[in-house]
Design goal:
By secondary structure, the chain is an alpha/beta fold. Helix content is 36%, strand content 22%. It is built from seven helices and seven strands; from the N terminus they run ααβαβαββαβααββ. Helix 5 (122-132) crosses helix 7 (169-179). The structure holds S-adenosylmethionine.
Length: 200
């Protein structure tokens, strides 16, 4: 995997990314996931790998109206699309989750939706996520496919994402442990992957 190619790949997809919006029932599934994280209305949230901001309206639904939230993606053109969204976060920052330009202990919740298989150095990203989480803060890695079907999907797409793999839960637990995160929720179902870690 190569960050330069991955970034280019998503930059090229940015303009058309929202042409296949998430169906309403998927929105419900995503909201259920957010609700399971027991997010406080004033929580500081980072949407990591936010893409065009497909989660923004759902994040807005679970926090108080005047609570800002934060979003980041390393594909500049994705962040440009995200800036057009209502339900604005603090402007989406263009940045790399493997080297976060953020001080320690800042966030209660980090959401990583659809991000993890595309990260070149997953261990570095997890260490960075832990660093910027506050004590008892949560990292949620989630997908609307299980690891098996997601990995098949990327493989069939071919090209840059052909070998972008989501680890199994067993491998994810090891990665969490190495990064100093305690596993809180861990599910790999046909239509959902959810792995939540806590910084104790
Ligand atoms: C499959 S898209 C998901 C985007 C969005 N979360 C969604 O569901 O629509 C993956 C996103 O992760 C971003 N990404 C991949 N590696 C990254 C990294 N190291 N740092 C920041 N963003 C990254 C890509 O640019 C892309 O926008």
């Amino acid at each position: 995997m190569n960050d330069f190619e991955t970034k280019n790949y998503f930059n090229q997809l940015a303009e058309k990314w929202d042409q296949h919006p998430i169906e309403p029932d998927k929105d419900d599934q995503l909201l259920q996931i957010l609700n399971r994280l027991q997010i406080q209305s004033n929580a500081r949230i980072l949407d990591a790998g936010c893409g065009t901001g497909r989660l923004f309206h759902l994040i807005r639904a679970v926090i108080a109206k005047n609570t800002p939230f934060y979003a980041m993606d390393y594909a500049f053109l994705m962040t440009q699309q995200a800036k057009k969204k209502k339900a604005q976060p603090i402007y989406p920052i263009c940045g790399d989750v493997q080297r976060l330009p953020i001080k320690d202990n800042q966030f209660n919740i980090i959401l990583a939706f659809g991000l993890f298989p595309h990260i070149q150095e997953p261990k570095s990203a997890l260490i960075e996520f832990r660093r910027i989480l506050k004590k008892n803060g949560k990292l949620a890695i989630f997908h609307l496919k299980g690891s098996r079907s997601l990995n098949q999907f990327h493989h069939q797409l071919g090209g840059v994402v052909r070998d972008h793999f989501l680890p199994s839960l067993k491998e994810m637990h090891i990665l969490f442990h190495e990064a100093g995160l305690k596993v809180d929720i861990s599910e790999d179902l046909p239509d959902k992957f959810l792995c939540v870690g806590i910084k104790e």
